[in-house]
């Protein structure tokens, strides 16, 4: 039986000011304004599960923090989690650990491609995807998603045309950030079929997979086609799921021994591999004992999403929200307000004192959008929505 079966009070506010929290203490530096209500960076304002906190306390009680080996039990916890949540049989030897998913993606790109190679990704997309690609002297190739009212859709003709033009790697965000899409089984199979046709490696960022809303289903890409999983690298982490980003812990799942060796060699060449002591402790505790807490969290997040949807429909009906399937990050369409991005963000910062993510950060197709983080106690969510209304009601 999972630990943490007592209901968690997600409404309780834990003030984070003064803890060096990027979301709260870093907002003024990032946005240039004081006293902002932060709903931007992707972490949660909820405490970690009790089982994780207890495991960390138990380890801190031993006052020696020297060099640490990675225990087999950590890989076993990852394998067990993937089987229990997604019915995916992962072998321990497939797993490489690293301090973070972004770092893992960077290492994989550099290990598996050469300078000048083409990396395909959807647009809009999580900014480090193109940031890493450009920083490592690779070429960014976008396949722009079709912006339909309810959900983004893949432009399959464009996607295939881009693949056939010499792409080496397809960098997939699964579920999609910022759009909140959970890619369907048929869509994932089509991605695999096309990448198989053009001999393209897929790097699948699945860091948000555990935050798929209850009525939807996340399917690990590499679980779908055993004959192609040798060309897939999957990135996962407990940091989004259990609010552990400050502990820097993630895993790569690399079924193919040749790809795994290339990535591992690159990690070693950079002296960049493994996890810190507390990241290991937290990761194992979360994947071993965190399922019940996560199930409670998902219910609360779904209620927060419905709260936003109801608020917008009643008080800011020109702001539209995609049908949301995963993540706690809402992609809000503000184009009906009839104002440009500069005016939009000036109003948010100066009138609403509200820190949201600018849609343009996610590429040109993000113009007219903002990204809102709703992983917070409901009183803080309501305050943010009221600030949103204060900032934008005059354009409504």
UniProtKB/TrEMBL annotation:
Identify the taxonomic lineage of the organism of origin: Bacteria, Bacillati, Bacillota, Bacilli, Bacillales
Q: Does the keyword Lyase apply?
A: yes
Keyword Acetylation in the entry? The reply is: no
Q: What is the designated name of this protein?
A: cysteine-S-conjugate beta-lyase
* Gene3D superfamilies, per database record: Aspartate Aminotransferase, domain 1 (3.90.1150.10), Type I PLP-dependent aspartate aminotransferase-like (Major domain) (3.40.640.10)
Cofactor entry: pyridoxal 5'-phosphate
User: Which Enzyme Commission number(s) are on file for it?
Assistant: 4.4.1.13
Q: Which GO terms describe its molecular function?
A: cysteine-S-conjugate beta-lyase activity; pyridoxal phosphate binding
Tell me which residues make up the Aminotransferase class I/classII large domain. Answer: 44-381
Family, similarity comment: Belongs to the class-II pyridoxal-phosphate-dependent aminotransferase family. MalY/PatB cystathionine beta-lyase subfamily.
């Amino acid at each position: 039986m999972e630990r943490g079966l007592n209901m968690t009070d997600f409404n309780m506010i834990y003030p984070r000011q003064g803890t060096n929290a990027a979301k709260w203490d870093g907002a003024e530096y990032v946005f240039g304004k004081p006293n902002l209500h932060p709903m931007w960076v992707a972490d949660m304002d909820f405490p970690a599960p009790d089982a994780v906190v207890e495991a960390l306390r138990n380890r801190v009680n031993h006052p020696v923090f020297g060099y640490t080996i990675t225990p087999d039990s950590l890989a076993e916890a990852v394998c067990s989690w993937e089987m229990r949540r997604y019915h995916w049989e992962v072998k321990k030897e497939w797993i490489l650990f690293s301090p973070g998913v972004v770092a893992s993606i960077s290492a994989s790109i550099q290990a598996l491609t050469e300078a000048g190679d083409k990396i395909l990704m959807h647009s809009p997309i999580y900014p480090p995807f193109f940031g890493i690609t450009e920083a490592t002297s690779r070429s960014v190739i976008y396949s722009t998603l079709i912006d339909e009212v309810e959900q983004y859709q893949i432009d399959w003709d464009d996607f295939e045309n881009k693949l056939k033009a010499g792409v080496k790697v397809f960098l997939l965000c699964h579920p999609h950030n910022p759009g909140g899409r959970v890619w369907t089984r048929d869509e994932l199979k089509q991605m695999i079929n096309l990448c198989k046709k053009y001999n393209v490696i897929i790097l699948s960022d699945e860091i948000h997979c555990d935050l798929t809303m209850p009525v939807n289903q996340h399917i690990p890409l590499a679980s779908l086609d055993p004959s192609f999983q040798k060309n897939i690298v999957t990135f996962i982490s407990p940091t989004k799921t259990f609010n552990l980003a400050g502990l820097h812990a993630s895993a790569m799942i690399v079924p193919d021994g040749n790809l795994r060796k290339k990535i591992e060699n690159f990690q070693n060449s950079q002296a960049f591999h493994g996890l810190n002591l507390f990241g290991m402790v937290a990761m194992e505790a979360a994947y071993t004992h965190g399922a019940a807490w996560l199930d409670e969290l998902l219910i609360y997040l779904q209620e927060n999403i419905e709260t936003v949807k109801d608020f917008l429909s009643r008080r800011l009906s020109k702001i539209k929200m995609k049908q949301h399937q995963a993540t706690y990050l809402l992609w809000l369409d503000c184009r009906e307000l009839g104002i440009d991005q500069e005016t939009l963000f000036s109003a948010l910062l100066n009138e609403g004192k509200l820190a949201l993510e600018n849609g343009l950060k996610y590429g040109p197709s993000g113009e007219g959008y903002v990204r809102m983080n709703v992983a917070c106690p409901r009183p803080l969510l309501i305050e943010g929505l009221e600030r949103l209304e204060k900032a934008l009601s005059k354009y409504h």
